Amino acid sequence: MSVKTVAPPAGAAPIKRSRRRLSLPVVLLIVAGGLALVSLVRLISGADDLTSIGQVSGALELAIPIGLAGLGGLWAERAGVVNIGLEGMMVLGTWFGAWAGYQWGPWTGVLLGIAGGAVGGLLHAVITVTFGVNHIVSGVAINILAVGVTRYLSNFTFDQAPGGSSKQSPRIDSIQDITVPGLSDWMADLQAEHWFLISDLAGVVGGLTTHLSLLTVVALLLVPGTWWVLWRTAFGLRLRSCGENPMAAESLGVNVYKYKYIAVTVSGALAGLAGAFLAIVATGIYQEGQTGGRGYIGLAAMIFGNWMPGGMALGAGLFGFTDSLKLRGGAENVHAMLLLLAILLVLLVAWQLYKKKYVAAAVSAVISAGLFVWYVSVNEVPSQFVDAAPYLTTLLVLALSAQRLRMPKADGLPYRKGQGK
Question: Pick the residue with more confidence: 288 or 382?
Answer without folding.
Answer: 288
